[in-house]
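Reminder to self: tokens first, then the designed residues, so the page reads top to bottom the way the pipeline ran.
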């Protein structure tokens, strides 16, 4: 029986929220249910619950930390801190956080939220569901709750309602490239906060590439001493840079110490976000070759890449493979993630074809071509990571050389790699350029800042279904979910990164959380209008939408 069938006044988000309400009350009540991503089921009831001094959170002992985080999050704007107790609180208005095994049907991240005028009861089978329920509660409060300073004269109340909610996919992610342009630790933490608000649970941290090595590896200090610094950054469209080699002439540098990494990982874990590190190999590795030239295929020094003219990539000698094992060992010690991303995309066969040492290595190994050589390397990485209790994930090119069943494929060159992988029994994360590459333009190029190319408007992101029809129904469970990608060739700073990410991430959050049959773009835009006020309070530089363009199909 659905929640809406119990005879209570209900809003189930079928159609624009504003059509369900009238007059002054319509605007006010619409804001109270402008939750993103859209809950699976929501039933409105009469009345409101007021947060005020003396309001108490009663939490199961196992949820005390979740309760304290929720209280800390609300305190700056409310001007008071909700007391957390693990014992009974009597009849005073209070918030209950409770683990409930009876809700196992909602999965590990689902929750039930019931609000009456006297108390709020948030229940879930796991702590993650409690966390997501608190994110919904924050969105039910006035938007000022996201401020970091006390707000006077605000009615800190939420509507009485009943929600049952759970995500469609277990991988709901965003990738941030910090190699092409380094992003400070403080921004990375803000980015993680923004993911948490949208109930995203995976932060894919692209830490190394041709253009910069951004993570401290103590055994190999030159990776950051040399590899984290480049002499300049390109200026203008890729084609023009390749033609005239124009750069800004400004050195670009930065890396995260291991202590920085631990801080970010702990911050994310507290918000139920898994941080997936990516260490690119064997291609996109010019920064590591610049630091240690013996790793290269061509046997000559190269700079950290500052234009678009690649000079080398890793060779496949046994010492090089062992070098990368050493690197991964330190990475694993910093990241508890089950998944470790090893890149694997855009390997340049020409460097291996021009290298006598690589050709000799191929003969030694008995491999017939460069794709088979990459396959050999990927399987070595897979064996190493599996032995450490981890699971390899790589871009869809890793399929071409043959991989073990254990490997996870991230499909970026359209959906075909994901379709092939899922139908072959591999787990898949969908990340196709057409729907999830947030470095693409959001509107026509003459209306937008310079981007890498492509066009990905908000409506197209919202239209995405991560399970293509070409995946057999019996294999659909192999689609773990989807994520967006923000490559930063043309994203030089934090505010630009926010602009390229929002509001498109709001749409993707709904793609991976809400059942596809309940998605409605026009109604999403109604909620987004309120959500923009939250982003304003959070000082997010999102792309503004004008009302007449919201429903425009591109």
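Designed residues (554 positions):
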């Amino acid at each position: 029986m659905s929640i809406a069938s119990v005879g209570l006044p209900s809003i189930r988000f079928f159609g624009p929220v504003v059509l369900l309400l009238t007059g002054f009350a319509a605007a006010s009540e619409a804001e109270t249910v402008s939750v993103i991503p859209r809950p699976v089921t929501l039933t409105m009831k009469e009345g409101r619950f007021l947060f005020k001094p003396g309001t108490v959170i009663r939490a199961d002992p196992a949820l005390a930390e979740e309760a304290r985080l929720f209280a800390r999050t609300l305190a700056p704007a409310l001007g008071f801190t909700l007391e957390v107790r693990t014992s009974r609180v009597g009849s005073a208005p209070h918030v209950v956080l409770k683990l409930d095994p009876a809700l196992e049907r909602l999965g590990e991240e689902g929750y039930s939220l019931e609000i009456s005028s006297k108390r709020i009861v948030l229940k879930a089978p796991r702590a993650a569901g409690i966390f997501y329920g608190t994110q919904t509660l924050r969105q039910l409060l006035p938007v000022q709750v996201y401020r970091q300073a006390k707000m006077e004269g605000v009615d800190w109340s939420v509507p009485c309602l009943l929600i049952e909610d759970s995500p469609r996919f277990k991988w709901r992610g965003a990738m941030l490239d910090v190699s092409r342009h380094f992003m400070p630790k403080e921004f990375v933490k803000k980015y993680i906060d923004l993911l948490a608000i949208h109930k995203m649970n995976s932060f894919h941290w692209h830490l190394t590439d041709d253009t910069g090595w951004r993570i401290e590896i103590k055994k190999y200090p030159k990776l950051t001493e040399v590899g984290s610094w480049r002499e300049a950054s390109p200026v203008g469209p890729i084609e023009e840079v390749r033609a005239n080699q124009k750069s800004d002439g400004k050195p670009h540098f930065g890396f995260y110490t291991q202590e920085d990494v631990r801080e970010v990982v702990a911050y994310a874990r507290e918000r139920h976000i898994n941080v997936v590190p990516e260490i690119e190999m064997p291609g996109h590795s010019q920064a590591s070759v610049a630091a240690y030239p013996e790793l290269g295929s061509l046997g000559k020094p190269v700079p950290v890449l500052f234009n678009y003219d690649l000079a080398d990539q890793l060779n496949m000698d046994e010492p090089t493979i062992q070098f990368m094992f050493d690197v991964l060992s330190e990475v694993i010690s910093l990241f508890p993630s089950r998944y470790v991303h090893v890149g694997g995309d855009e390997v340049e066969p020409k460097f291996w074809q021009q290298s006598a040492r690589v050709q000799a290595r191929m003969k030694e190994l008995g491999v017939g071509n460069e794709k088979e050589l990459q396959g050999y390397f990927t399987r070595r990485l897979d064996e190493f990571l599996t032995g450490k209790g981890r699971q390899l994930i790589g871009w869809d090119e890793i399929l071409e050389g043959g991989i073990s069943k254990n490997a996870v494929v991230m499909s970026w060159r359209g959906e075909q790699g994901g379709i092939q992988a899922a139908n072959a029994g591999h787990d898949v994360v969908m990340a196709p350029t057409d729907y999830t590459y947030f470095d693409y333009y959001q509107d026509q190029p003459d209306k937008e800042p310079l981007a890498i190319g492509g066009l990905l408007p908000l409506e197209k992101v919202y239209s995405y279904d991560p399970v293509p029809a070409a995946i057999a129904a019996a294999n659909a469970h192999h689609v773990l979910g989807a994520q967006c990608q923000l490559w930063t060739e043309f994203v030089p700073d934090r505010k630009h990164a926010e602009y390229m990410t929002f509001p498109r991430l709001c749409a993707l959050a709904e793609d991976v959380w809400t059942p596809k049959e309940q998605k409605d773009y026009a109604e999403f835009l109604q909620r987004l209008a309120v959500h923009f006020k939250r982003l304003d309070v959070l000082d997010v530089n999102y792309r503004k939408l004008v009302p007449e363009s919201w429903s425009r199909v591109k």
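The mean pLDDT is 92.
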